[in-house]
């Protein structure tokens, strides 16, 4: 298993590689190292992303470009880099990470919502394109996950978000990892083009 991030940090037992997903050449180099260490990549989980929360009228072009570049273009770059080998092998699992915001929208989240909506459109198109090669493409759309980012939210904002979640809590990282593992497994061999909400019910009716 290999993990690619800006820092190159990874959990124990995982090959950590540093790369910027917005830079196709750097990404290709990192994937080359991963392939040399572990062989052909059979499962891709593309979860890189950033958010620059800002009202649309106050969102600079730079802020917009940063979010779209990392969350949407970076996702595409990663998929494009791994699919040739998967196509040759005629098998593979691709899991992209969207967000409940793609379906619900959010104040100050125009760029993020647009990027994640694009990820969902990308998921469906790739699913149709790659199915004949034995490759499934799905996405998970988490709600609010307990991370350093959500922990830094002001109390009144965190409370407002919690009130929108039928299960009444933020997700733990493990709550998202489970569905990802399912989509990567043989149990999901007949699932493709799906957007799986992992949001505690926040996206009911999406």
UniProtKB/TrEMBL annotation:
The keyword Transmembrane applies. Keywords: Membrane, Oxidoreductase, Transmembrane, Transmembrane helix. GO terms for biological process: monocarboxylic acid metabolic process. Coiled coil: none annotated. It comes from the Bacteria. InterPro entries: NAD(P)-bd_dom_sf, Sc_DH/Rdtase_CS, SDR, SDR_fam. The chain crosses the membrane at residues 94-115, 176-198. The keyword Membrane applies. Pfam families: adh_short_C2. GO terms for molecular function: oxidoreductase activity. PROSITE patterns: ADH_SHORT. Belongs to the short-chain dehydrogenases/reductases (SDR) family. PANTHER family: 3-OXOACYL-(ACYL-CARRIER-PROTEIN) REDUCTASE, 3-OXOACYL-[ACYL-CARRIER-PROTEIN] REDUCTASE FABG. This is KR domain protein.
């Amino acid at each position: 298993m290999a993990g690619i991030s800006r820092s190159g940090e990874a959990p124990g037992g995982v090959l950590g590689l540093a790369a910027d997903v917005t830079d196709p050449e750097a990404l290709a180099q990192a994937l080359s190292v991963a392939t040399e260490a572990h062989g052909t990549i059979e499962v891709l989980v593309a979860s890189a992303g950033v958010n620059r929360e800002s009202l649309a009228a106050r969102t600079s072009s730079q802020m917009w470009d940063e979010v779209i570049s990392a969350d949407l273009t970076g996702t595409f770059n990663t998929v494009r880099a791994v699919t040739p080998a998967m196509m040759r092998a005629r098998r593979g699992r691709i899991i992209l990470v969207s967000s409940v915001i793609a379906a619900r929208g959010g104040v100050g989240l125009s760029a993020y919502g647009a990027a994640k909506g694009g990820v969902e459109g990308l998921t469906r198109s790739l699913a149709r394109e790659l199915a004949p090669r034995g490759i499934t493409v799905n996405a998970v759309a988490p709600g609010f996950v307990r991370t350093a980012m959500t922990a830094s939210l002001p109390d009144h904002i965190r409370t407002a978000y919690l009130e929108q979640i039928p299960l009444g809590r933020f997700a733990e990282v493990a709550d998202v990892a489970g569905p990802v593992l399912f989509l990567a497994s043989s149990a999901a061999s007949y699932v493709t083009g799906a957007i799986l909400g992992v949001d505690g019910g926040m996206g009911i009716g999406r």
